[in-house]
Amino acid sequence: NALIYEYNPEAGRRIIKHAELIFCLDFNVLKRVGDMAPFVKDSGAKTILIDHHPYPDNSFDTVISYPEMSSTSELIFRLLYQLGECESIDKDIAECIYCGMMTDTGGFTYNSNDPEIFEIISFLLRKNIDKDAIYSNVYHNYTEQRFRLLGFTLLKRMKVYNDMHSALIYLSKEDLQKYKSTKGDTEGFVNYPLSIRGVVFSTFIYEDNNHVKLSFRSRGDFACNEFAAEFFQGGGHLNAAGGEFYGTIEDAIALFEAALKKQESKLKNASS
Asked: Domains along the chain?
């Protein structure tokens, strides 16, 4: 059985406290696990990081990091292959690996030109997974309120900076409350402005509890992770990154627009 720390932190802390080995997947710095971080750090357990984000920190006992992988799920498969454990992959495991590879590549629409990725998919399909059902469960399973929020966001909360091939969407806490937004409702919003002809850099800024979060996406060679690290204490991949800001959403937007100006030459020359 899976236990989600956010929903049952007390039970999660007990498990962490008595653990001897903790696998840390798909993040490169311990602070990414939020409130759980100090308990993992103080647990006394050995920690093994398996990840594909660049620049992992040194707070783990063992680090397996390959930024060239399309996803951590692909890396997990390759580790099992190297260990000679491919035959231990059953349908349930295959579904999890496929789902992780699918979501981290936008349904195999980016960062997925390596032919070996599709050899892995072929192997997983032979485990009788239903890739169409997996896609449907992930991408065709949204609430009505999410779509109403999306419509509002694109109509009322989008700014396009044509001269810098960039776009911004943003949502205040009041906006999110008005549309009764729940966790996950805004997943993927940041990708929509990239469908606009000429836009190579998209940003989503939204209020979350006591701070402001930012998601960045790009097409081509504009480095989201460098932008996030330089201006918003963030990081990630070349074409997908995140950051945070402690202050008002208005100040976050002002900083973002100032940062765009500083990156103007890069954005104007970015390839898509």
From this structure: 9-137 (3.90.1640.10), 144-268 (3.10.310.30)
Q: What is the pTM of this model?
A: 0.88
Q: pLDDT confidence of 77, banded at 50, 70, 90?
A: very high
Do the Cβ atoms of 247 and 212 come closer than 8 Å? Answer: yes
Q: How far apart are CA 101 and CA 134, in angstroms?
A: 11
Nearest to 189 by CA among 203, 201, 175: 203
List, in order, residues 6 or more apart from 103 with CB less than 8 Å away.
71, 138
> Given this model, what pLDDT does residue 161 score?
97
pLDDT tier at 89, thresholds 50, 70, 90: very high
Q: How would you class 257 by CB atoms within 10 Å of its CB: exposed for 0-12, middle for 13-18, buried for 19 or more?
A: middle
Which tokens go with 65?
């990091």
